[in-house]
Amino acid sequence: MALNVAPHSQQACDTCPIRPHAVCAGSPPDQLVVLEGLKFRRSFTAGQVVVWAGEEMDFVASVVSGVAELGRELEDGRRQMVGLLLTGDFLGRPGRAIAPYTVVAATDMTLCCFRRPQFEQLLTKMPALANRLLEMTLDELDVARDWMLLLGRKSARERIASLLVLLARRESAMIGQIPTDRIAIELPMTREAIADHLGLTLETVSRQLAALKADKVIVLDGKRRVTVPSFAALVAESAAA
Amino acid sequence: MALNVAPHSQQACDTCPIRPHAVCAGSPPDQLVVLEGLKFRRSFTAGQVVVWAGEEMDFVASVVSGVAELGRELEDGRRQMVGLLLTGDFLGRPGRAIAPYTVVAATDMTLCCFRRPQFEQLLTKMPALANRLLEMTLDELDVARDWMLLLGRKSARERIASLLVLLARRESAMIGQIPTDRIAIELPMTREAIADHLGLTLETVSRQLAALKADKVIVLDGKRRVTVPSFAALVAESAAA
DNA sequence: CGTCGGATTGAATGCTGTCAATTCCGGTGG
DNA sequence: CCACCGGAATTGACAGCATTCAATCCGACG
């Protein structure tokens, strides 16, 4: 795969928007300088594959902007999304050369990359980096396990509601609010992508959205915009733990 | 909850059976001595709850012997197992006081414990410990994501076969072999526990085991012992990725 | 021998998937 | 500006798989 390294990739970490949330958060200034010298950026357009499951992956990265999806699939084509990488999230695995899942850019996306062997070296020398990565990995593990509950036990309607709750919480967090009523949610994905996340078919997704609309739990403005009259009602539909 | 600390818990780490695989693996001798001085053991009988989801958890631990199950549940009682802790696995989360899932001893079990604040201290000072924990956490994340594929996309029959493949691989690994034919698998759990892992009902588990038996993919010796005439055939049934 | 929990089996319901037809919407070109 | 196109989404009919509810079986243990 051609490395589309951006020219002048040495943008300063000082001004990096994801610093407070990324792996590099918490690293002291002298270590940040080292990171700054080794990083390089790569950009992807929506729909582009970053790595295929089973392929070699010689770098690790932080998502600077955009969204990436982690998916795993069976030989016959059945697909399950197993993770979402949002701004600041970490991609790749120190100590493993082969990617265990396919990574696709869901939107246009920019990554801040490090060559894997170099990054592994850094981990042994920079405890702050290792600890931040551990913390992030533990968070992802919790998210994955919550999703297991959804996939294993929730009905189609509950899965849709759960996803909407998740998205609503995120939109609210963006503007520093806790979710209240009349939230507008932008669905950042097609029905098929939603289905692949929830372990459903796209037809079922469509039907359950229609059902939630009919029951006045949500209002649909066009295909991709949802407004929620009562957040509490939506949470009730999601069968929260 | 009463701490049932074993008297004379200061068993030597030298002779500890899980040393090669646990968090402490890779720590240099001088650091092991520190760990040895701080550890204490706790034992649980099969079925006993170690912590409830939402409860405070003031320690972290390695499983010395036995099996523990991590589960999450909905208000109405639906339950999904989200992890299995086997010999050597790590329990608890540095930096988080509240347990996100319920932990139950599936068999009689012994833990090698550390008080959480002390352990967090150690992590910052012992890079080998932090790196081993990171590695183990990344492994668990991969396992969780594989399971998401199973829960989201596989049929009941495929889920059962997948579980048997997993157990067969583990039994074989124990004796240092790769799985071949005529493997004997011991099911370490009830039908209900299997169902909770696979996101099924216990009736479906029972039916699919019967179906696999009828199709001569497996042989049932009593309720809890399965032998596999052809491992390849079993793998084919599991819809491997 | 009786009991109790776990496991199996049966019948019926219902949710979700499958297949297929149709509609909606955004973009493109005449 | 409008007609057309193609992909996304919706809707309908039907089939099938897993769940639900219920009855029975099995095996360990007193």
From TrEMBL, chains A, B:
SUPFAM superfamilies: cAMP-binding domain-like, Winged helix' DNA-binding domain
UniProt xrefs under InterPro entries: cNMP-bd_dom, cNMP-bd_dom_sf, Env_Response_Regulators, HTH_CRP, RmlC-like_jellyroll, WH-like_DNA-bd_sf, WH_DNA-bd_sf
Domain HTH crp-type residue range list: 154-232
UniProt cross-references to CDD domains, sorted A to Z: CAP_ED (cd00038), HTH_CRP (cd00092)
Domain Cyclic nucleotide-binding per the UniProt entry, residue ranges: 42-140
Pfam families referenced in this protein's UniProt entry, alphabetically: cNMP_binding, HTH_Crp_2
Key words of the record: DNA-binding, Transcription, Transcription regulation
Protein name: Crp/Fnr family transcriptional regulator
Organism: Paracoccus broussonetiae
